[in-house]
Specification:
alpha+beta; 4 helices; three-stranded antiparallel sheet; globular
Length: 146
Amino acid sequence: MAHNVEFQYKYIPDDTWASGYLCIGGNNFEFVCSYLFKNPLEELLNAVYQIVPDLASFSRKEIDFIMLEEPVEYRWEFKLIDEEKVTINIYEKGSDLNAMLIFNDNLYLNDLLRALVHCIGRDAELRSNEDIERIYKQFKVYLKSH
């Protein structure tokens, strides 16, 4: 189970694209995503929030969301293994409509939360979104108590 988790996310204000990566141990997933229909970082954080025990009103064991990189889409799946560990699967679906697993790893949920908090904490522009700021603060409080 990897402890070294990195998450990087770069959004240029007033642009319609962002880029980033998720690295768990030596397993790396780089992405570009579109802001055309919704805020992908907000969608990612909302999905993770839903699986953190005791944060969401009705926490879930599994959740997914779609991140768009027109015409490609990435479906991120989060599945709790237990209260401490999570599996992340990322599927890519292109114009041929076939989904292919391109990233899979298991990690400690707190390591994922620390990586997200670290990334967002360094970028005031990302935190200017009310929902992102709210979830960021709740992740920080959760980490302090666990």
